Amino acid sequence: MQLIIAFILIIFLLSVKGQIPQLPNYSCNENDVSIQLTLSSLSHSAWNSISNCSLQQCNVNSNNNSCFSSSTHCFDYRSINNTRYCAPAISCSILERCDNITQTCSTNNSICVINSCCSSQAVCLPLVTTTMCEKGWLYTNNMTNARTQHKASVLPNGRILITGGYTGNNVALNTAELYDLPTGTWITTGRLADARWIHTSSVLLDGKILVAGGFNGNISLNSAELYDQSTGTWTTTGNMTHTRHVHTACTLSSGLVLVTGGLDNSGFALNTAELYNSSTGTWTSTGNTIDTRYWHTASALSNGKVLVTGGEAGGASNTTELYDSSTGTWTATGYMITARYAHTASVLSNGKVLVTGGFNSIALDSAELYDPSTGTWAATGNMSDARYLHTASVLLNGKVLVTGGFNSIALDSAELYDPSTGTWTHIDSMANPRFFHTASVLSNGLILIAGGDNNNALNSAELY
Ligand SMILES: *[C@@H]1O[C@H](CO)[C@@H](O)[C@H](O)[C@H]1NC(C)=O
Ligand SMILES: *[C@@H]1O[C@H](CO)[C@@H](O)[C@H](O)[C@H]1NC(C)=O
Ligand SMILES: *[C@@H]1O[C@H](CO)[C@@H](O)[C@H](O)[C@H]1NC(C)=O
Ligand SMILES: *[C@@H]1O[C@H](CO)[C@@H](O)[C@H](O)[C@H]1NC(C)=O
Ligand SMILES: *[C@@H]1O[C@H](CO)[C@@H](O)[C@H](O)[C@H]1NC(C)=O
Ligand SMILES: *[C@@H]1O[C@H](CO)[C@@H](O)[C@H](O)[C@H]1NC(C)=O
Ligand SMILES: *[C@@H]1O[C@H](CO)[C@@H](O)[C@H](O)[C@H]1NC(C)=O
Ligand SMILES: *[C@@H]1O[C@H](CO)[C@@H](O)[C@H](O)[C@H]1NC(C)=O
Ligand SMILES: *[C@@H]1O[C@H](CO)[C@@H](O)[C@H](O)[C@H]1NC(C)=O
Ligand SMILES: *[C@@H]1O[C@H](CO)[C@@H](O)[C@H](O)[C@H]1NC(C)=O
Ligand SMILES: *[C@@H]1O[C@H](CO)[C@@H](O)[C@H](O)[C@H]1NC(C)=O
Ligand SMILES: *[C@@H]1O[C@H](CO)[C@@H](O)[C@H](O)[C@H]1NC(C)=O
After folding, report:
1. Which residue's alpha carbon is nearest to atom 7 within ligand 1?
2. CB 384 less than 6 A from any atom of ligand 7
3. Coil/strand/helix, residue 8
C-alpha cells in the first residue's frame, strides 16, 4: 500500500496529459485518486524479477522528481490487455514516447507523463484505468450481470466475490462473479445451488465463503453453500434451523459464523440466532436475541463480543444488544439516541462503532458512536445527506466512506467521516446513483462499489 500511495503521490507531482488536447484543471487532494495505476495486487511485486529492473527510478522520498539508479523496487505494471511491464516507478526505455507535439499517446490506455524522470522526453504510462483527477471516483468494467440486493466478500486472494441478487420482475440470480484486481475485469465463477437475494456472505477462517439464507422470489431460504476460491466451485452445506432473509452474519474469532434475526418464510421477524461450524458443516441455535429484528446490523467487536443494533421490529428499534460467545448469551446494552433500520454499523480502528443513517419514518442524517468500554451511545457529526440502504466502509486511513443510499430517490452522493474530528466531508459524487449496492475494501485500499438499484438493477461498478 505504501508503495502504491508513494507512486500515486509521485504522479501528483508530475504534469500529466490525457488524450484531450486541453489540459484539465487538476485540483487533487488527499481524497482524490488522480490516476488509477493498476500495479500488481501482490504487495511485494516490487521485487518481481520479470525483467531486469536496473533502470532509473524516481526518488520516492523527495518531492523534487530526482532520480537514482536502483536494482530493486521494480513495479509490475499492467496495461489494459494485461501486458506486464516490470519497471521502476517510471522507466524511460520501456515506455512508449508521447507524441512530441500533441503530447498524447497512441492508445487511450496510456497517459502522457511530461516532466517525468525521463527528463526531456514525455512518456506514455500504460494503465488499466486512466481517469484524471477532479473526482475521487474511477470507472471500472461493468459486472456481467446487473444485480441489486446482492452480497460481496473479499477473498483471501484479493479478489471480490459477488453473489446472487435481484434483477427485477421477481427474478433472483444464482450467478457469482469475481472482480480481479490487477486487470479490473469480472470473471464468472460457478453457480449457486439456490438463486437468492438479501442473503449473507461471510469469509471463513479457512478462506471459504459461506452464503446463507436469502429470498428466492417465492420463499425465504434456509439453505447455505460454500465457495472455494482454489477451485472456483460451490458446494451445499448444512441448512440453517430457520429460513431467513434480511438477517445478519458475522464471523467470530473462533471461526464460527453467527447469524441473527431476519424474516422467515411467513414474513415474521425472528429473534433466533444460530452458529455455523465449518468443521461439521452444521448449524446450532445459540440463544435468542431480546428483540426480534430485521434490517438490523451485527458487528464483531475487538473485545470478542458481537454488537447488534436497531432494525425493524414493529417500527424502527433503538435497542442494541451484545452476544457473548463464551456463554452463548445475549444482554441488552445502551439505547441508541435514534431508533433506525436499514442503517450501517462500522467498527473503527479505535474500537468504537459508528452507526450512520437509516430509516425511522424518514431517512436519517444522524450518526452515533458506541463505546464498548462504557456500553453507551453518543452523538457524532451529522451527514450532509439523509440516507438509508447505503454503504459504509472503513478505509485504510481509518476514515469511513459512506456512499449512495435512498431518500425518495437513489443517491449518488458520498461523504467521508473523520474519527479524529467526528466530522463529515462531502466528497465528489459517484457516477451512478444507487442503493442496495455493495462496497468492498480492496487490498490496495481502493473501494469497489458494485451494482445496486436506480429504478433498475445496475451492472456498473466504480472505484474510489
Ligand atoms: C480551468 O479553470 C479556469 C478558471 O477556473 C477556467 O477558466 C478553465 O476553463 C478551466 N479549464 C478547464 C479545462 O476546465
Ligand atoms: C541487469 O542490468 C545490470 C545493469 O545493466 C547488469 O549489470 C546486470 O547483470 C543485469 N542483470 C541481469 C539478471 O540481467
Ligand atoms: C532532490 O532530492 C535529492 C534526494 O533527497 C537530493 O539529494 C537533491 O539535492 C535534491 N535536489 C534539489 C534540487 O532539491
Ligand atoms: C498489448 O498492448 C501493447 C500496446 O499497448 C502491445 O504492444 C501488445 O502486443 C499487446 N499485447 C497483447 C497480448 O495483445
Ligand atoms: C518530434 O518527433 C519527431 C519524430 O519522432 C522528430 O522528427 C521531431 O524532430 C521531433 N520534434 C521535436 C520538436 O522534438
Ligand atoms: C480515445 O478516446 C476518445 C474519446 O473517447 C475516442 O474518440 C478516440 O477514438 C480514442 N482513441 C483510441 C486510439 O482509442
Ligand atoms: C456498462 O453498462 C451500461 C449499461 O448498463 C452501458 O451504458 C455502458 O456503456 C457499459 N460500460 C462499459 C464500459 O461497458
Ligand atoms: C417461483 O414459483 C414459480 C411458480 O411456481 C416458479 O415458476 C419459479 O421457478 C419459482 N422460482 C424459484 C426461484 O423457485
Ligand atoms: C435443506 O433443506 C431443503 C428444503 O428446504 C432440502 O431439500 C435439502 O435437502 C436440505 N439440505 C440439507 C443439506 O439438509
Ligand atoms: C466445531 O465442531 C468441532 C467438532 O464437533 C469441534 O471440535 C470444534 O470445537 C467446533 N468449533 C468451535 C469453534 O466451536
Ligand atoms: C426507545 O424507544 C422506545 C419506543 O420507541 C421509547 O419508548 C424509549 O423512550 C426509547 N428509549 C430511549 C432511551 O430513547
Ligand atoms: C443532527 O441532526 C439532528 C436531526 O436529524 C439534530 O437534532 C441534531 O441537532 C443535529 N446534530 C448536529 C451536531 O448538528
Report:
1. 25
2. no
3. helix
C-alpha cell at 407: 431518500
Q: Tell me which fold the domain 138-463 belongs to.
A: Neuraminidase (2.120.10)
* pTM strictly above 0.85: no
* Dist CA 462 CA 388 (whole Å): 20
pLDDT value at 10 more than 60: no
Q: Is the CB of 82 under 6 A from ligand 4?
A: no
Closest ligand 6 atom to 19 CA: 1
Average pLDDT, the chain: 80
pLDDT at 103: 65
**SS3 state at 193:** coil
Q: Which residue do the cell numbers 456472505 mark?
A: 201
How many angstroms does the Cα of residue 100 sit away from the middle of ligand 5?
A: 6
Q: Bigger pLDDT: 379 or 43?
A: 379
Numbered ranges of CATH 2.120.10.80 in the chain: 138-463
pLDDT tens digits for range 101-145: 666 777 666 666 654 444 456 667 655 433 333 346 777 889 999
Grid coordinates given for 424: 463529515
- Site of grid cell 522526453: 121
Ligand 1, CB within 6 Å, residue ranges: 22, 24-25
| pLDDT value of position 95 | 67
Q: What is the dihedral of CA 401, 406, 407, 411, to 10 degrees?
A: 60
